[in-house]
Structures are given as structure tokens and as C-alpha cells.
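Problem 3 from the worked examples.
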Amino acid sequence: MSDTTKNKEQLAFCRVNKDALIDEEVIQIGAGRSGTTVVWQILNCIYKKVWKTHSPKADILKNPDQKIFFTYRDPRDLTISFARTNLFSKPKTPRSFRKGDLISTDPAESFHMEFEKKASDSESFPQLDYAIFLAYREVIDGLIYKDGRKKISFGPFSSVQKKIDEVLKSKFKNVFRIKYENYLGKEQRISELVDDICKFSNIEIPLEKKEYISNKCSIKSNRSIQKRYKNFKDGDEESNIHGNHIKSNSKATWRTMLRDEQVKHVNEVFKEELEHFAYE
């Protein structure tokens, strides 16, 4: 049984699990699309009160002894993931675009289906110019939608993870840094993540409980929840899983989706963050 609440700034929300193993309050923080949801799910199975936030400005970040779990990810893949959930969802994609703004003027519905089709075939990635253009228009030219349409900015991703980490290093002593690629990349290592969270927290939980948590928070389980919802705006409050939350193809990474000139550009955009987290 659990309850959900938000802080007064609306920058964080908290799930209280009355059946948790440990009666303790912890914080999960990280940029969106960096594995925050899965880590939050795991923590919620272990701790009674788990805050989740994407902002280093959240007022819950006060106690220097607070136990904090920080997720981070290659910002190039993080941005592609953000683009997919926000731009490739049919309900949020405009039906048409002004000629000259896009490489293709295909309707959004057709594009969405074509992208999913091509994304399932690694040999088709070189043909994904339209998808690449949509996803990175903001980084390259500063705009995605024109004529009053909603603009989705990727600018904050150029430094948000670095800013979070700098705040944590300057003020907090008890931080577990979780690199997305170590646990949640091409191969899901949920059970290892559960083990490492327990080691960091200096707690022991029964093997059967670890297995239960690993299965409950697995990509298979989360995908089954995702299928209930049509787009990212709608989701499940208990698991925090939304429609279009999880990508269907592990090959859709910056290495496969970006052309050489785009790689050069985004490497410049994310230069400080890539160096900070030692990404090549």
C-alpha cells in the first residue's frame, strides 16, 4: 500500500510505501530519461519514503547527511530518448509542418509508423534523416516547431547532469551514483542494481525479496504496463510508467542514428558534460 505527495514547489514528488522493508526517507535525482523511473521503483520497494526529482533546485535537497541516489547517462543518448518520447508520440506531433522547415512533409501519423518500422531494422538507420532531423532540430538550428507551435528545448540537457552532480558533490556526503550504461543499457542488470543499492545502503534483504523486486522492476514488467497507455502524457501512478516510455529497439542510440556532422556538433554541445562523466 502506498501514497503519493508532491513538494510545495512541484519539483519533486514522493511515494510512501507503508509495506517497505526499511523505515527511512531517501531521494532519487537525475535528468529525465536517465533511468530515474526504474531506480525510483527499486527504492520504493525498499524504503518507506522515496522522493523523486529531476531538479537540483528542489527544496527537498537540504540535509547534507541525506541518502541520495543519482542517475546519469550519456547526454547524447539521453537527448535522443527525450526526443523519442516527446516528438515521436502521435498525440503530440503536429499533423503537418510548413514546407522548408523539414526534410520531409509526411504527415505525423505516417512518420510515426515509418520510424517504428525502420527503428526495428538496423540496416534502415542510414535512411532515418527525417527522424534525426526532427529530434535534433532544436540542437542544430534552435527550433523544432514554428508558427506558434510548442517548442521542446534540448538546451538544458547540455549541462543539467553536470549541474546536479556538482550540487551533490558540494553539499552531500551520502550519494550513490548510478551510471545508466552499467545497469540499464543494452543489457538490463536489474538484479545487480538491486544488490549494489543494498550494499551502498549497508542493508541485507532476503533473496526472495531481491528476486521479487528485480522482476517487478524489470523491463518486461514495465513494458506490460506501458502497453495500457497510448502516449507519454498518460501513465500508471504506482509504477510511474507512461505510454511510449520505453524504446522498442536497443539499436536506436546516438552512434547509429547520427550522421558524422551531427556527431561533431552534439559533441561540441555536450563537451563539458561528456568530459565531466568521462564519456568518449
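Problem 4, a separate protein:
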Amino acid sequence: MSTKKTKKTKRPKFTVGPVKVRAARGPSDEGAWYWRAVRYIDGAEHTLWTGWATQEVAEANISAQVAAGNIEPVDRSSAVAIPRTMGDLLECWMYAEEQRQDIKAKTKQVNKYYARKGKAYLGHVAIRQMQFHHLETFRDERLEANAAPNVVRGEISVIRRAWKWGIARQYCPNRELPRPLLKAASVRPKRTPSVEDVRRTLGALNPDSWAFTTTLLIAETGMRVGEVAALTWNNIDLEQGIAKVPYRSKTGRRDVPLSDTLTSHLTSVRGDASSKARVL
């Protein structure tokens, strides 16, 4: 039996002078849309107004503002648009975070990425109805989508921070949004390579390749991949047969003995490399 596909309602949009207005979501049961009015200044998009209204009311409101000359960008985090859903709340919180001068641009970028994931899954939930079980469902759905546990933990943290931000501005009910339990998945390898595995791997590699040197260093010294990648020839004492690995400790390093086989190999591959050059 064939089923008819539900036709999506086309979101309305209109323009009043230099202001472009489009519906971001909706309609609600009352026929209202969530509108976003923007103006482009020197190629940059600036939000002038956001809020729920019918198209007739939105057009009248924007027309009146344009006629009065009130078309300068405003702070979306202010009470101009009261957030009604978690999507609204996260959008306002993101804008407020963008204005902060005490956090790095990279932090803002990460927070924005996490907040968008929250909007995608929880944007439709009304703020007054937001409960702990919504976060649990969010966690489960993100993990089922193969998101890394640490990433999901960051996304939940951003949602809870936006919630606290909303409480301070009386956008959200004055109640805590608990953190759902989330265990990080084990990253330990299921099987440790045997000595014979290492020998076969080295036998299949070109002795002059970086892959051979990397494998031999890890197998002979037990150093971490990051430590091996960071080694410079200044860290290698071929005469003493020692690798001076930078380490966060009182001495600032730890000495790792090198076998005769490894010392001989490193001597052959160094060539004319300077002491500041990387081993790999």
C-alpha cells in the first residue's frame, strides 16, 4: 500500500527596504512563525530582530521600524526576543558568547559547534518543558550516531551552560538541569603485537623509510607515538646510546636507553641533518 508524502510547508520571507525577513521555524499551532530580520552592512549580516509572530504582524512591525529609521543592529541576547524553545535559547546564548572578549576565538568556535548539535536535537523542545530525560535522550541518540563520548560530554556541558545563562536572565525556570551519566569508551587496543608481529612488519618496510624508523623506535623503547614524533636529533645522544625525551617533570625530561640495533639504525639515517631537525 502506497503512502502519500506529507508536503512541507514553505517558510515565508519578505523584504522591507534594506531589511530582509525570513521565517526560521514554524508555524506554531496559533499560526505564528519565528522570524529573523537581517540587514547587510559592508557584506556582513546583522540581525535586527527575532521573534514569534504571524506574517501580517511581522510585516507591520518591520515596516514601522524601517519607517522610523530603527534599523540598526541590536543585541539578540537582550529581551528584544524572548526565547521560547531550546533552539531559541542556544541561539541567544551563542550570540552572547560571540560578544565576550575574555575567551579565545577557538573556544567560541568549539562552543558554537556544540551548541548547533544541541539545537539540531533539542531545538523543538519548549524551555518550560525541558527536563532531565531530554538530555538523556540526546546523549543516547548522539552515541547511536557514533559521536565520541568526549564530544557528547562537551555538547551536554554547553547545553547546561546555556541553561544557567537563561536562568540568570529569567528565560528558564529556576531549576537545575542535571548532567546525565556518560562513560568514556575504552581506547585500549584489543591485542598487543607480539615480537614476531613486529619482526614481520619491519621486514615488510623499507629500512630508509620513516615508517621503519617509527616502528623500530616504538618497539625498542616503548615511547609513545607523540614522543617519537616530537623527537629531534638534539634529543638523541648516539655516543651514549640515549634518547632524551622531553617530559613534564621536575627534570623536564626522561632518558630512554637505545639498543645497539636502534643506535646503528639512527646513525645510518641521520646523515647531514642538523641537531634541530626532527628525527622523522
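Solution to problem 4. The radius of gyration is 29 Å. Residues 74-80 have pLDDT under 50 and may be disordered.
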